[in-house]
Write a structure and sequence with these properties.
Blueprint lengths: L1 H38 L14 H24 L1
Length: 78
């Protein structure tokens, strides 16, 4: 019976050391990736789109005004 407990303790110790080794490997990998991320410079991107013209910019404003009126009407009914 004592022999079985000893075998099991070796098994758990081996699993523990394997886990510690794996943790150390992963910590080293994380440190390496953090260093690469710190050194990373994103590629320069061109501007997404030219500024909207006055006609295009006035259309969303009209929609916003309509949306603002709807809640005020709903509040007055309540």
């Amino acid at each position: 019976m004592y022999h079985r407990v000893e075998d099991r303790s070796h098994f758990y110790f081996d699993r523990y050391t394997e886990t510690l080794t794996r943790v150390e490997e992963l910590e080293a990998q994380v440190a390496q990736l953090q260093q690469r991320l710190a050194e990373y410079e994103p590629p320069q991107q061109p501007p997404l789109a030219p500024a909207p013209s006055e006609e295009e910019s006035s259309e969303p404003m009209e929609m916003e005004e309509e949306e603002e009126n709807v809640p005020s009407d709903a509040n007055s009914r309540v």
